[in-house]
Amino acid sequence: MSAEFYRYLRWQSDEIPAGYSDAGMRAYRHLVYLGVSQMIEAHYPEMREQMGEDDWKALMIAFIRQSAWTSPYYGDLHEEFLAFIARETA
Predict the structure, then answer these.
(1) If DSSP codes are grouped into helix, strand and coil, which group holds residue 25?
(2) How far apart are the first and last CA of the chain?
(3) Could you count the other beta carbons within 10 Å of the beta carbon of residue 11?
(4) Taking 90 as the threshold, does the pLDDT of residue 67 lie above it?
(5) Is there a contact between 32 and 64 (Cβ–Cβ < 8 Å)?
């Protein structure tokens, strides 16, 4: 898969990579969002409840876009999320 594919999935680009459909890429992006959101919410359910849906979604997209997360496993997100929050609040 191309760098453009991953950049689109991480909200770093809105350009659909060559060879992929708009609907397919939106579905992939949404699945990444759901996976990240569910794993982070599992650790911080109160945070999501307090933030509300719009702010939570903005935080998750910012995390996906800006994080240094490179692991293919959603279970590894917790530590990177803590690092992301520390960088954003410093």
Answers:
(1) helix
(2) 35
(3) 17
(4) no
(5) yes
The rounded distance, in Å, linking the Cα atoms of 4 and 17 is 6
**In this structure, which amino acid lies at residue 1?**
M
- Gap between the Cα atoms of 30 and 21, Å rounded: 14
CA 48 to chain centre: 15
pLDDT at 62 over 90: yes
Domain positions in the chain are 3-89
Question: Going by C-beta distance under 8 Å and a sequence separation of 6 or more, which residues neighbour residue 32?
Answer: 9, 10, 64
Residue 8: its H or E element: helix 3-9
pLDDT at 58 over 80: yes
How far is it, in rounded angstroms, from Cα 60 to Cα 49? Answer: 14
Closest listed residue to residue 35, CA positions, set 74, 8, 84: 74
Amino acid at 78: H
- The average pLDDT across 1-18 equals 92
